[in-house]
Amino acid sequence: MYKNLSIRQKQIVWAWAFLAVPVVFYVVIRFYPTANAMVISFQDWNLLGTREWAGWENYAKLWNDPTFWKVFRNTFVYLILGTPISLVISFFIAYHLDKTRFMHGFIRMLYFLPFMTSAVAMAWVWRWFYQPVPIGLFNNILAQFGIPQIEFLRSTTNALPAILAPAVWAGLGFQIIIFMAGLRAIPQSYYEAARIDGVSKTATLFEITIPLLKPTIVFLVVFSSIGFLRIFDQVFNMTTGDPGGPLNSTKPLVLAIYQSAFTDFDMGYAAAQTVVLFLILLFVSLFQLWIMKDR
Amino acid sequence: MKFTKMKAMAFAAATSAMALVSSAASAVEIEYWQYFFDARVTAMEQLIENFEAANPDITVKMTHFPYADYRTKVAAAIPAGEGPDVVQLFYGWLNDYKAANLIQPLPADSFDADTIDAEFFPMVSAMREGDSYWALPTAVRSLALFYNTRLFDAAGIDGPPETLDEMLEIGAALTQRDGAGNITQAGLTMAMTAQDHHWFREGLVRQFGGEPYLDDYKTVNYNSPEGIEAMEFYIGLGEEGGIGAIGFMDEPQAAFKAGRAGMHIDGSFRIGSLNNTRGLKWGVTELPATGEGMRSNYSSYWVNAITTKAEGEKYDAAVKFMQYVTSDEAMQIWLDVVGELPAKPSVGLTEANANDETFGPFIKGLAYANTTKFVNESAQRQLLVDAVERVKLEGMSVADSIAIAAEAEQKLLDDFYASN
Amino acid sequence: MAAIDDIRASSDTLFKAQVTRKKGDWGQYIRWLILFLGGIAMVMPIIYMLSTSMKWPHEIYDVTLIPNEPHFENYTYVLEDGRFYGWFLNSLIIAVVTTVSAVLFDSLIGYTLCKFRFPGRYIVFIAILSTLMIPTEMLVIPWYLMSQQFGWLDTYWGIMFPGLMTAFGTFLMKQFFETVPDDFIEAARIDGLNELQIWWTVAMPLVRPALAALAIFVFLGNWTAFIWPLIVTNSWDMYTLPVGLSTFADEADVQWELVMTGAAISTIPTLIVFLIFQRFIIRGVVMAGLKG
């Protein structure tokens, strides 16, 4: 029977044969759960009892919950601090490393190494760094100079940046590498033309390099933004005991979701928060598409 | 030829399958779940070994999880027809588990309610409903003050504190600071995230003349002058010139184990892990009394229950296992290995146990202990953690902070009792 | 083909210095020194982790980098009960299986969407691409309920199933298959190969660098994955390294030399692999990053 099909028809058969398993996978493991999460967000359910329809109750609770707004704020602080800081540092390093020859490979390796570590392991290492005297590395160093210790993790102001630091640290290597690839893709002739025209180095940087790097920058902004918006591993591991830091000062949305779902068993409430996270990320992704269209 | 070969193979397959079935039938396997705590797991392994020796036809498979995930795992597994036949749960979760249909009452013929009432510590009666018990503990726990004898000797202190004032005095002598004024050795460990919230609720508030809860723990009452005073006392311990610091060495038991803290309030379940700490010499005494000699303690317990999953022969095996883990023998093993006190006075209050250097203070503590009826222990603990943080980190007054905590906790209680 | 070569070329130039400079340029030396010191600072956390894992408990109060008497007793102690070996094995099995599955399926889907003309092609592509916008965190609750229903909790399958195919990889592979000329495929058809053979023996070898890049990304992602394994596993023996380490650290009553040892044990293998395949891995990251 197969033999009687035209070439085009055969192609259709093959295509769907190849796609059969994947289509099932995407429907069952991606689309159904997405819809399911949205449905649960309108239900009241504690995992033990029966599911009850709750309408907008979970969202109303969200709106009126000061902790949620704190969490919402924290999530954006991670983003607003994390993305620019890590991009500026990584661009600075990439830009200069690009012009360095001696031990180039070795230095690049040093910067890239943290990217290969697991966030959980490094969260515990940094947690140790941040301890007060007599064990914390940073405070011990300060103490040697007679400087009073700084509360890193047990502070409502310092804890969030302290947790952000290892996240930025681990991501730098990736960003540097991508920036360097972007820099190398810029044709040398542009720079030569600029040199002949006597354009200053700063002007070259801002008028040639950065504009031509736009696709790379947009990619990294979106990639790292999504990463910071979804921060969890570091916070979870650096604040066990008082999850989310003192007075929730470091709690991001994903940790709040985890706690609602798997500590308080408030599945509906947790699902409602995931929908919020979904909307935020959707907005970021659409923003990327919009910027890229400009190009 | 081909046909006979296939037949032979089919026959072989059938017999081996039968062999499997029959061997499965001769031994019942039941599953037991508890949360992970080194000594508890060791003790339970011993109990299971003894039980299996006495009941060769039953095997018990133990699974344990980190404390933080424990409730979720149980709640998820049983409705799915998986998980434990016998489960360990915190006494405060009983209502939750009952409402969710996770556990079933113990059979009255093997567990006579009136006999249990007569034999066990009175606090256990919270597990009774009508003529049946829903769950029973092997052991109960209370708080006491651990102290590091090396540090005490080094500071020239003769013995542990009897009263809160003595505790302050001794603590001050033990506290050391570096040139920058940071604590390098604490007189007393502090952490509401650990056991201190129990000490505050049932210990300090009562010792300062307050009553932490009213109406059978349905009304929060620590937002009172006495409660505020108790909280001021607690927070004062970690202020400048105090005898400790919150967050010192990350976790209180870590500081005590490392020999960097002179005193540490904790439960009897800590004994095992302290014994395993090399180079640590410690003693234990009752929680400090007030100047007038008034003492107050907190007691709690974990219970075992039969889940709704256990049916038929598994149910029978589960009943037998429950009987064993609540037997006098099991209680003594639990005491020796975990350091938790037997749930029956007849076993716990023996001369030997009450005068035991290690267990004595805990057993004496039981006599004046109260058991908080938590509806959501971790959430209620978090409220006190936050109450301290607001004062320490945001400079809020103790009275305001306590008021916020009390209001939030009242809401938790109201929500719970309204729906249960 | 051109695109692959481009990227290959641009990532390969990463390994060469760009322009030679005149001697005696002091700015150049300062630049180098700053970069070098920055690089050292970057690896300090890792160095301190290793150093502390070789210290005795009383030494951890010291900020000295070199332990007084380096020893491996913490390692013996941590590895003694064998749990770390099990976690390591679990992580390895899970990362390998998901990597193989994702590489195969993603490239098959990418190939199909790229080289076949069939009704529904555009819809399937958009549908798969749209899942990129769904955060994993939104799916964990339904996945958890699903696993509970089907008995997948605490099994390898339960840990792995969400990662068996990735939209990112599909998109990446589709991009790369664009560079495979249709003539090659036509020629193979005329030679009488069936479509499966064409994909496997003709198209796949042409995108091998892209497959490697994808494999590196997927492997790293699964090796360090935390939140889903944390939720779906119940018992010690099913933990992955990150989940095991997290509970181990908490349970060790934060005895820091032991915590650092655990962290080192879970970090060292990837570091070794990286040091051996450095060029390859960096190139893979660049390719996946630039095209994804």
Labels describing this entry:
heterotrimer; A: 295 residues; mainly alpha; 71% helix; flat; C: 292 residues; 15 helices
Structural features, described:
The complex is a heterotrimer of chains A (295), B (420) and C (292). Chain A is an all-alpha fold and 295 residues long. Chain A has 13 helices and 2 strands, in the order αββαααααααααααα. A two-stranded antiparallel ribbon of chain A has the order 1-2. In chain A, helix 1 crosses helix 13. The longest helix of chain A has 34 residues. Chain A is flat and about 70 Å long. With 420 residues, chain B is an alpha+beta fold. In chain B, a hairpin with a 4-residue loop joins strand 10 and strand 11. The longest helix of chain B has 25 residues. Chain B is globular. Chain C starts with a helix and ends with a helix. The mean pLDDT of chain C is 86. Chain C is built from 15 helices and no strands. Chains in contact: A-B, A-C, B-C. At the B-C interface, strand 2, helix 3 and helix 10 of B face helix 6 and helix 13 of C.
Sheet with most strands of chain B: 12 strands, mixed
Q: Which stretches of chain C are poorly predicted, pLDDT < 50 over at least 5 residues? A: none
Question: How many β-strand runs of chain C?
Answer: 0
Oligomeric description of these chains: heterotrimer
Q: Tell me what portion of residues of chain C adopts beta-strand conformation.
A: under 5%
Global outline of chain C: globular
Q: Radius of gyration of chain B in whole Å, from Cα? A: 25 Å
The proportion of residues forming helix of chain B, as a percent range, comes to 40-55%
Distance between the termini of chain C: 17 Å
Q: Structural class given helices, strands, pairing of chain C?
A: mainly alpha
Please give the number of β-strands of chain B: 16
Quick overview of this protein structure:
The longest helix of chain A has 34 residues, at 7-40. Chain A starts with 6 loop residues before the first helix and ends with a helix. Chain A is 71% helix and 1% strand.
